[in-house]
Structure formats: C-alpha cells, structure tokens
Specification:
CATH class of the largest domain: Alpha Beta
Radius of gyration: 21 Å
Oligomer: single chain
CATH architecture of the largest domain: 3-Layer(aba) Sandwich
Helix content: 40-55%
Distance between the termini: 46 Å
Structural class: alpha/beta
Number of domains: 2
Number of helices: 12
Largest sheet: 7 strands, mixed
Shape: globular
C-alpha cells in the first residue's frame, strides 16, 4: 500500500506541474463508453471526466507496462446506441476492453455485446443488480449495486430515522417514487425486498417516466399514503421536478434520493432553498471525512486543474477510483487483456476499506462485483451536499424537520 501511495503522490505532482511521461511507441487502447450526448449527457460526461483524470495521472506516472493509455470514446446516447457503439468499438476500433458506462440500461446492452465477443467490460458507475448476475465472466464492476443502495437506505431509516421519530422500524411508513427504466426499477425492487425483510412497511409505490413534465398526480398519491419518508429514484430533470412539486404541493415527508439527479449541483441550483434538507444515498461526495476517503482532496485539485471548475457530482470520483482499479488490474496482467488473465488479477485484489479516494475497499466476488463498495447518506445543507451518515464518513449529523 505504501508503494501505491508513493505512485499516487508522484503522479499528482507530475500532472499538476505539467510533466510528461515517456512511453514506448506502442499504445494501450481501451474503449470508454459513456452517454456524452442526449438526456443523460451531464452525468455521462461527469463520469468520463473521472476516468479521464485517472488516465492522465497514470500516463504521467509511466502508463501501463511502459505504454501510453488511450481512450477510444463511444457515445451511449441511447440503449440502442450503446449496443451499436460497443459493436463498433470492438469490431472496427479493435479495442480489447471497454470501461464506462454510468447508465444501467446502457451498460446492460453494451456489456452483453462484449460478453458475446469475449471482451472484458469494466463498469464504474451503473448500479442495476442484473449487471453482474447474468452469468457472464467478462464483466467487473467497481461501484456499489442497487442492493447496496437499498441496504444503506434501510439501515439509515431503521437505525437513525425511526429512533429520531420515536418509532420502531415496524411502525415506519415508507413510499417509493421511481423513474421506470432499469435503474429505477432495479433500485425500487431491491428496496422493497429489503424493507420487507427489515419489517418496514411500504405504503405506496409510484413509477413514472423520467421525461415527464408533470409529477403532480404522483405527489397527490404520495400525500394520500401519508409516508414518514419517500424513497426516490430519479435522473437529473425529474429529481428537480419531484422535489419542486413536493414543495409546492406540501408533501411533508422528507425525500431520500438514490444517487442520480439528487446529487447534482444543478439540483440545488434549480431549487435553491427548496433543496435544503433533501437526503440522498449515493457514491462518495466531496464533503466527506477524508480519514474515511484518503486522497479525496487530491482528486479535487486534479479535477480543478484539468477542467477549470469544481466537480458536478460524485460520479467523477467514483469513475476515477474505478478506472485506477482497472489500470491496476491490467498492470498486474503485464498489459494482457486475455479475460482469464484479467480474472486472475482481479480476483487477487484485496484493498481494505478506507484506502481509496471513495473510501471503498476492493474485493471482487465470483460474479465480478466489488463486494467492498458502499454508498453513503448525504444531505443538502445551505447549498452544499454533505455526508451525514454513517458516523465515520460524516462531516455533519442529519437534519430532519419534524
């Protein structure tokens, strides 16, 4: 671990001072597949930015096996585009591996293409459970799953929020509002099953289309159900719409988001004071205890240096961490992309929690899922998204209006 810290420090110095790595003539090309146009472009590009910083940093430290890492970009603007772009990257661009993808539905389509062709696929941001439960031996995911998000939400509700209300977990009333793609449906299903196991009562479930322009009917039904808290699964625009109309129509229950739009700077920019108090379970954000997530501030400096602005969500940090894990795996294979070699290198990894900039550990299960990845509970407080739970990662205690 000391060697990794030394490499990280050297890489940071090289990138911030503009030094250049020296490589062999041969390049190491990897497909980078994200939605960089269309409705998911904001978080797609934000995710790519994290992986791009990892690529630049690793190249400044000498690349992989002396070769410069080059991303061959693909645009997963839609599910069908993700499928066709994966085909193009593999068949025409001849990439030996692909990383991405942010969107669960896009990842499901693209990783299936890669699996059919025996090409390694590394997922750094999509959370649908099914991504790593299809029996493919060609996919590895570094980030938490929908089940992990649900587990964190249930733990927060039963261990912190229920006692705060003076209730037993079995007395809690919870509603679910979710967009109806693979992402929202997977998270909602996971949450429902875990809530049942914890004895938490689900009083209503409200699916909706993410591109809708009116959620008032959803809000009215939520009000009728009288929940203590609303578990929401939203992308960027619908997260804003849901919270705005909840405020306007006087839905009293707090909203507990599930990543996506609830973590974006655009969310608080659009809602202003109406965002104050909105909770979100998500990837590690930037107001997190650095004892839990060492290297977080260094990544922030790298981001500002590279893109001349602050990060727009924790998706960039998650992809930065994930891309570095991918590069470590390929380094261990000596630059080989043979799937069996990658599997052996991946399965040998065992990074303890608290040793990466996200705070996540790294240990892959047989299905390719990182079992040491964990989401955190955050909250918008006066225009800033801060980590509030669990205690070791928090910089503030949660605030709930009663």
């Amino acid at each position: 671990m000391k060697k990794k810290v030394l490499i990280f420090g050297m890489s940071l110095l090289l990138l911030l001072t503009g030094a250049t790595g020296v490589f062999s003539a041969e390049k190491l090309e990897i497909g980078a597949l994200y939605p960089i146009s269309g409705s998911l472009a904001l978080l797609g590009e934000e995710s790519w930015r994290g992986a791009e910083i990892a690529r630049l940093m690793r190249n400044e430290a000498g690349g992989i096996a002396g070769k410069e890492i080059v991303f061959v970009k693909g645009d997963a603007s839609t599910v069908s585009a993700a499928r066709s772009e994966a085909e193009r990257l593999i068949e025409q661009q001849k990439v030996p591996a692909i990383l991405g993808t942010y969107s669960s539905s896009r990842c499901m389509a693209a990783s299936e293409v890669a699996a059919r062709k025996g090409v390694a696929y590394f997922e750094l941001g999509a959370i649908a459970n099914a991504i790593t439960t299809r029996g493919y031996n060609t996919i590895w995911r570094t980030n938490p799953t929908a089940a992990d998000f649900s587990k964190a939400q249930i733990a927060f509700i039963t261990e912190w929020y229920a006692p705060k209300l003076g209730k037993k977990p079995s007395e809690m009333r919870v509603s679910i509002a979710h967009e109806d793609s693979d992402y929202g449906t997977s998270v909602a299903d996971s949450f429902s099953k875990m809530a049942e196991g914890a004895g938490v009562k689900i009083v209503s479930v409200e699916p909706y289309a993410a591109n809708t322009s009116d959620l008032s009917s959803v809000i009215f039904r939520l009000r009728k159900a009288k929940p203590d808290i609303v578990m929401a699964v939203s992308y960027a625009n619908d997260a804003i719409l849901l919270s705005r109309q909840a405020y306007e129509l006087k839905l009293k229950a707090p909203i507990l988001g599930t990543g996506g739009g609830h973590s974006l700077q655009s969310f608080v920019d659009a809602l202003g004071k109406e965002a104050n108090g909105v909770l979100n379970v998500d990837f590690t954000q930037y107001a997190t205890n650095e004892n839990f997530a060492p290297g977080l501030k260094a990544f922030l400096a790298l981001y500002k240096k590279t893109f001349n602005e602050n990060p727009r969500s924790g998706h960039s940090l998650a992809n930065y961490m994930g891309a570095n894990i991918v590069f470590d795996i390929i380094e261990k294979t000596g630059g080989s992309f043979d799937v069996q070699n990658i599997r052996e290198a991946a399965m040998a990894m065992d990074v303890p929690a608290g040793k990466t900039p996200t705070g996540w550990g790294v240990k892959f299960g047989e299905d390719g899922q990182n079992v040491k990845a964990m989401p955190l509970v955050t909250q918008w407080r006066d225009g800033k998204l801060v980590t509030v739970w669990p205690e070791g990662a928090a910089v503030m205690e949660p605030m709930i209006d009663q």
